[in-house]
Amino acid sequence: MGLIAKHMKDQVGTIPVVELFIIVVAIAAVSFAVYASLRARGTFTLAPMMSPSASPLGNASPLPAASEFDVPELGFKLAPPSGLPDLVYSTDLNRTGSLGDGTSYSVSTVKLSSQSLQQAGGSGSSCSSEKMPLGLISRYSFDPTGKIMDVAKVKKVGSFYLAYAGPQSTCTAANAANATEVNDLQSAQVQLMQQAFATAAAL
């Protein structure tokens, strides 16, 4: 009787193991069937393995330095450096002037500042775009080099010419305690503005 009881006990103990094995095999079979079905329909692909030394951005194109800055009123755009992402402007359109020989011409102008410079200057400062703390860009139908005063840089863009002139005065802060900070920021941004002008292109 003792041997029979022991044999029955061993048989009972092995039943859960057998059932577990059957369940595992069934799950594996179903998983394989699903995978094979998805693979056949092209909806499942394995991602390539990346070696530890590989860089995921190794072949990526560099990001642009800053967002494009469009001036639709004058028909051009700039790509400002990353240190000058917040340009603002006001326009003075279709003014008339005359050259030394009496020839009349029309010119449209963009007066430049930045949000960061205006914020640093504070309310009541002379850092608004109307005061041109970052200079101005003018559009001409002719090359103004040697014909118009205060033209620092000239660039032909499409069928017209753009001329950049620097600021005529320093940006005066509303609070005298911020004067040095504002002047330093203005100087740095004027240099960046000159770099931005070099990227001018037609819209």
Task: Note down, in words, how this protein is organized.
The chain contains three helices and eight strands, in the order αββββαβββαβ. It is elongated and about 105 Å long. The N terminus is likely disordered. A hairpin with a 2-residue loop joins strand 6 and strand 7. It is an alpha+beta fold and 203 residues long. A five-stranded antiparallel β-sheet has the order 3-4-5-7-6. Strands 1-2-8 form a three-stranded antiparallel β-sheet, with no helix packed on it. The relative contact order is 0.13.
Short description:
The protein is an alpha+beta fold and 203 residues long. It has helices at 2-41, 115-121, 179-197; strands at 69-71, 76-78, 87-98, 104-114, 136-140, 153-157, 160-165, 201-202.
Order of helices and strands: HEEEEHEEEHE
For the biggest sheet, the summary is:
5 strands, antiparallel
Count of beta strands? 8
| Poorly predicted runs | 1-15, 42-65
Mean pLDDT: 78
Task: Give the strand line-up of the largest sheet.
Answer: 3-4-5-7-6
Q: Termini, distance in Å?
A: 100 Å
The amount of helix comes to 25-40%
Q: By helix and strand content, what is the structural category?
A: alpha+beta
* Beta fraction: 15-25%
What is the overall number of helices? 3
Large-scale geometry: elongated
- Integer-rounded radius of gyration: 36 Å
